[in-house]
Amino acid sequence: xxxxxxxxxxxxxxLIRVDFNVPIKDGKIGDDTRxxxxxxxxxxxxxxxxxxxxxxxxxxPLKDIEKKPNLTLADFSLKPVLSRLAExxxxxxxFADDCIGEDAVNKAKNLQAGxxxxxxxxxYYKQEEKGDKDFAEKLSKLGDVYVNDAxxxxxxxxxxxxxxxxxxxxxxxMFGLLMEGEVAAAEKVLHxxxxxxxxxxxxxxxxxKILIIENLLEKATDIIIGGGMAYTFFKAxxxxxxxxxxxxxxxxxxxxxxxKAKEKGVCIHLPADxxxxxxxxxxxxxxxxxxxxxxxxxxxxxxGLMAIEQFTKVIRASKxxxxxxxxxxxxxxxxxxxxxxxxxAVVEATAKGAYSLVGGGDSVAAVNKFGYADKxxxxxxxxxxxxxxxxxxxxxxxxxxxxx
Length: 404
Ligand code: AMP
Prior knowledge:
The protein is an alpha/beta fold. The protein folds into two domains: 3-175, Rossmann fold; 183-390, Rossmann fold (3-Layer(aba) Sandwich). Helix content is 37%, strand content 18%. It has helices at residues 33-48, 61-67, 81-89, 102-109, 126-130, 133-140, 177-191, 206-216, 230-236, 251-264, 305-316, 337-351, 361-369, 383-390, 396-399; strands at 13-17, 24-25, 28-29, 51-55, 93-96, 116-119, 145-148, 173-175, 197-201, 222-225, 240-241, 267-269, 273-277, 286-290, 293-294, 299-303, 320-324, 355-358, 378-379. A six-stranded parallel sheet has the order 5-6-4-1-7-8, sandwiched between helices. Strands 12-10-9-17-18-19 form a six-stranded parallel sheet, sandwiched between helices. The protein has a three-stranded antiparallel sheet with strand order 14-13-16. Helix 11 packs parallel to helix 12. It is elongated and about 70 Å long. It starts with 12 loop residues before the first strand and ends in a 5-residue tail after the last helix. The protein binds adenosine monophosphate. The site of adenosine monophosphate (AMP) has 16 residues, from strand 16 and helix 13.
């Protein structure tokens, strides 16, 4: 593979896989973060004197149309992205109504240096998600250099994210700047971390996080477990958790994690107390309670003050921090305090020199909500991909670009 910044794109046509799967409603774009994230990569190619062919998926057209026959492919078009993209790039962007076929081939062939072409949604074709080799080869003809800048889909072995790479020589395939940043941040935390290394794992379900915890038992010095998933651990140990979230069928797994952690010398930190509520609502009556004695009819919806103190102490002493999943129902103001306090401790540790990576849907939403995104070392855009990376899996989108 080549390194993006070392490559001179003059006279080249870069076929760039981006992730423009942005919210679109009634033809209007909502949060444009993903489009913005691709801009530096596109601009570098253009300023070198190259041209750019962009390809992306949007939504799940074929699956959704099957369920709702009133929908058509047009409801899944990438066209609404055009004007925002042109605005952000400061240049016109051409559009091909089909990501393969004569029109796309001609438009790509006629692109001049400095010009940009966006292809229609890749997922109009079932071959995309199936990782079809012929489809990938057709796409590959639209450029002479392949750049993958879609970290969010790097865990999928799709035609445009992985299979296509084989049609480019090693010198002519590479990560884009966004993807490079994501991979570097993830590798630093998982493979080149400075100890103590704390992983803060929260969110709703143990079952979603079991693989990541198991893999981190091999890597981290401390694992903080917060959020709804903590109660399965307390119940498994014989505690009373009231009507807090619990996965009864995962209690054995929780005990197994605690046992393995002891064997490996990894400290598992479970929250000492919770903010409990009499219903799942922002106007619930609340109280605080230690986590083994939650009364019947009450549920833990945030970590309590003792837990905050316990967790922030560990975070402040750490040199590497990975955070995936909120500490409570932070979407409700009444139960956001714990997640906010953890975010503040991560920010504080970062300011003192720790490396912090926030990855995975809701913890990213939390740091954005509290305005701390630029005060941690790295905020990942790739929820599922980042999770799988930390589960220890090889991501097809990364493996396909690399040389071995
Ligand atoms: P996840 O996607 O697994 O990271 O879970 C995130 C979701 O977990 C958020 O929507 C939170 O509101 C929810 N959550 C966190 N803590 C709790 C809790 N104690 N009880 C119920 N839901 C929770």
